[in-house]
């Protein structure tokens, strides 16, 4: 049973006078087959240019691979698992880039697929698949997608 009041994330003060802090994303975890860490490093570090982060000492035995994305502590985590993503699974994460055409060229020249999808206003984008079949969306944010609708 809920004992605390709902938190409204539109800046409304709570009954106790405090201001709620909007939750934010800290990391996304994606399953990979055991032993695929080098493939992950080659694609995300080599092709996409993400910076690998050191995994905390207490987690090193799990053979995780972490990358920094964006400002602050936003990260991608790759976790060895026996439960992997099915070929047609639509789950994915999206990376915002500055030059979508440059990334499209890098991904294509590295031999990865360019998958076009339905257009979103002010969000040119494409999907690709990493070497392990995980879907990755890349986009540029040109403005509010609701403008002009």
From TrEMBL:
Pfam families: Glyoxalase. Residues 24-141 form the VOC domain. It comes from the Bacteria. InterPro entries: Glyas_Bleomycin-R_OHBP_Dase, Glyas_Fos-R_dOase_dom, VOC_core. Coiled coil: none annotated. This is Glyoxalase. It comes from Reticulibacter mediterranei.
């Amino acid at each position: 049973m809920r004992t605390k009041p709902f938190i409204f994330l539109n800046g409304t003060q709570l009954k106790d006078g405090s201001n709620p802090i909007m939750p934010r994303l800290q990391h996304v975890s994606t399953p990979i087959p055991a032993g695929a860490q080098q493939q992950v490093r080659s694609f995300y570090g080599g092709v996409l240019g993400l910076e690998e982060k050191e995994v905390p000492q207490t987690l090193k035995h799990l053979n995780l691979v972490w990358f920094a994305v964006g400002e602050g502590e936003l990260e991608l985590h790759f976790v060895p698992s026996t439960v992997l993503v099915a070929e047609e699974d639509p789950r994915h994460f999206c990376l915002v880039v500055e030059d979508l055409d440059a990334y499209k060229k890098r991904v294509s020249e590295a031999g990865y697929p360019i998958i076009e999808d339905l257009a979103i206003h002010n969000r040119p984008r494409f999907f690709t698949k990493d070497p392990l079949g995980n879907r990755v969306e890349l986009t540029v944010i040109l403005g509010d997608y609701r403008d002009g609708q």
